[in-house]
Amino acid sequence: MHAPSQQTIEPARITRVAVAPLIGESPPGGWSNEIKPDDSVHALVAVSTDTGVTGFGSAFTDGRLVEAAARVLEPLLLGENALEPMKVSEKLHQNTFWMGRGGSLTHAISGIDIALWDILGKATGLSVGQLAGGRHRRRVTPYCSLLMDAPEVMADEIIRFREQGFRAFKIGWGPFGRRDDPALDEAIIGAARRALPDGGKLMVDAGASDAYWPNGLKWALRTADMLAAHDVAWFEEPLPPDAIDDFVELRRQSRTPIAGGEVLTRRQSYFPFFTRGAFDIVQPDVTKVGGFSEQRRIAWMAQDFGVRYVGHGWNTALGLAADLQLATALPNVDLVEYIGGSAYVDNIMTDPFSLDSDGMLTIPDKPGLGVALDPDKVARYAPDAAQLFADS
């Protein structure tokens, strides 16, 4: 008998990294110092190779920081085989301890890592989900993520997106917890609950990573009890991100599941939250945490600790595409985050995402991330868009 022949895929050597900050329609973020449309909080990243295959990713931080990080990181990337995303990304992490690893530099690495997985999929003809674990599901429910407002405005917002087909909603930030007015907080939640579709889900995000968050554990305990009475599915960021002792105690006492972790970076920072039992639901952001490679490792770790994984996704269409690929590669993922009304999600792809009749998103099964940026659409929001596509 003859041994079966093996197909060899030639290396794809990295030749260039390009960054294009997105500006013009940056969605409100809820922060105390509010984001303006021309502020940059997202950047698209392109990694080019000598085989002509280009991969695309997205990073959540000021685009100027991503541009600077790319210039610093590019010497570590040039000539590396893009078909080895975890190896290449780990090289970047290992060589940047002294540069301040874990902040915006890691956010920038996130965009590069997502692009490397996109390249690997395109080179092999497989989706990132297939490469990362297989296809456990073909579609998943998106929850529409909206900022809180006055009760009557909040209800109208829910109804607007309900009519577009969304069946699950997360509302957060805005006045919630910031006015020392528990009656207002509950009125907002009640208005949102009444506006849901039949069988709809509601999640609440306090946004306690905001600057100078005014509340502590006792507020979070009282509020969690109120949310339980309204059948809220989870209470997100109810405490400042570093308050691990308070998270542990809140989770122990709360009837509402406790979620968090969106501002942490790299898997190592999640370990104490897992070992101490701080979260019911962990929410790493693929465009911050170190990319798809780190997101997957954190999701696996969560599974081992019995913590539910739901990726944080206040980012772009490419971030959502990466979340969808991980949602199919893991056995127990039922939700992905979808910013309601963001141009950077809805208006930069050749084929925008669309909900089916059940309010679900089909997970792309084309090679790589399975989505394609539209150069003309991207150019509306990125003055440097052309350099993203120069080698593709």
Task: Characterize the structure shown.
Keywords: Lyase. This is Mandelate racemase/muconate lactonizing enzyme family protein. With 392 residues, the protein is of the alpha/beta class. It contains 14 helices and twelve strands. Helix content is 37%, strand content 15%. Strands 4, 5, 6, 7, 8, 9, 10, 11 and 12 form a nine-stranded mixed sheet that branches. A three-stranded antiparallel sheet has the order 1-2-3. Helix 5 packs parallel to helix 6. It is globular. The model has no long low-confidence stretch (mean pLDDT 95).
Largest sheet: 9 strands, mixed
| Pattern of helices and strands | EEEHHHHEHEHEHEHEHEHEHEHEHH
Q: CATH architecture of the largest domain, please? A: Alpha-Beta Barrel
If you average the pLDDT, what whole number results? 95
Tell me, what is the CATH class of the largest domain? Alpha Beta
Number of helices: 14
Through-space gap between termini: 43 Å
Low-confidence stretches: none
Morphology: globular
Which range does the strand content fall in?
A: 15-25%
Task: Spell out the CATH superfamily of the largest domain.
Answer: Enolase-like C-terminal domain
What Rg, in angstroms, do the CA atoms define?
21 Å
GO molecular function: lyase activity
Pfam family, one: MR_MLE_N
Keywords: Lyase
Protein name: Mandelate racemase/muconate lactonizing enzyme family protein
Q: Topology, pairings included?
A:
Blueprint: E1 14-22, E2 42-49, E3 54-60, H1 63-77, H2 85-94, H3 104-124, H4 128-132, E4 139-147, H5 151-162, E5 168-172, H6 182-195, E6 201-205, H7 217-229, E7 235-236, H8 244-253, E8 258-260, H9 271-275, E9 281-282, H10 292-305, E10 308-309, H11 317-329, E11 335-339, H12 343-346, E12 361-362, H13 375-379, H14 385-388
Parallel strand pairs: 4-5, 4-11, 5-6, 6-7, 7-8, 8-9, 9-10
Antiparallel strand pairs: 1-2, 2-3, 4-12
Helix pairs in contact: 1-3, 2-3, 5-6
